[in-house]
Design a protein that fits this description.
The chain is mainly beta and about 270 residues long. It is built from no helices and 25 strands. The chain has four domains: about 80 residues, no CATH class; about 45 residues, no CATH class; about 40 residues, no CATH class; about 40 residues, no CATH class.
Length: about 270
């Protein structure tokens, strides 16, 4: 059957626009030659369009006159609003085998950030133009990786930085306040597999060499295990209320009191 044509190309071929309505509510079928596209529009004064799986069901998808899309709701709160009244609300991006699944964020046509699955590494990625330009990688075990020269920053003015520059790793306090390392019990600093510094809770702070304790603070001062080696220096500047022990190029040992008077330490 042809309407507007004597040579129909389909079982039903209508040339022109069409409307199905009750005089107040309905839909229109049209076309756009400039966009070379089909147009499905609302014949209602509201301009809204809804899609149902059958005539008696509730709307499964709803498009407002302003262009907002609601799935599971006829009152979308944003450009796209997905709502479930009985289960979790989910969006699934399913890429082909060995291809990425990505969600991109753009500003005025320029992609700024991308999140998604990188099929090459099977990591969840926060990236720039795509997941092949990662800013953050998270693997299936929950390990988070930030590439070289990417910083984790903390504080209102990015005061604390943790990062790796490709050669070395840094914990860098660059802003307000001190850098405090605190533990509920002892605190250890290792060099490789060797203890370098051990801070005991309510006890000593010790320095270690090759996993052997060599020096530590005590309740009444300082304890050294092994030889105490002093580098030769010139007579130091005096410090009030402080004494200094040192050696000079004459291979003698000296004590300087707080007034600056130098005393040779003699052994008999």
């Amino acid at each position: 059957m042809g309407i507007g044509t004597t040579t129909p190309t389909k079982a039903f071929d209508a040339r022109g626009e069409g409307r199905v309505w009750n005089g107040a509510n309905g839909c229109e079928l049209s076309y756009s030659t400039s966009n070379t596209s089909a147009i499905y529009g609302s014949a209602n004064t509201s301009g809204n369009i809804e899609f149902r799986t059958d005539t008696g069901a509730t709307a499964k998808m709803f498009i407002t006159n302003a262009g907002s899309i609601g799935i599971g709701t006829t009152s979308p709160l944003d450009l796209v609003h997905i709502k479930s009244s009985s289960n979790d609300a989910r969006i699934l991006l399913d890429g082909h085998t060995n291809f990425d699944a990505e969600l991109k964020f753009a500003e005025n046509g320029t992609v700024k950030y991308t999140i998604g699955n990188d099929s090459a590494t099977d990591n969840f990625v926060i990236g720039t133009a795509n997941v092949d330009n990662p800013l953050v990688n998270i693997n299936s075990s929950g390990t988070i990786n930030i590439p070289d020269n990417g910083h984790l920053t903390f504080g209102g003015s990015s005061d604390l930085h943790i990062y790796h520059d490709g050669a070395n790793s840094y914990i860098d306090e660059t802003g307000q306040g001190d850098l405090i390392i605190k533990g509920s019990d002892d605190v250890y600093i290792f060099a490789g597999s060797d203890i370098a510094i051990n801070c005991n809770d309510n006890s000593e702070v010790s320095l270690w060499y090759n996993n052997v304790k060599k020096a530590e603070t005590t309740a009444d001062g300082f304890k050294c295990t092994g030889a105490l080696r002093l580098t030769e220096i010139s007579t130091p500047t005096a410090t009030a209320d402080h004494g200094k022990i040192y050696t000079k190029s004459d291979n003698k040992l000296y004590f300087q009191d707080g007034a600056g008077t130098e005393h040779e330490i003699a052994f008999v």
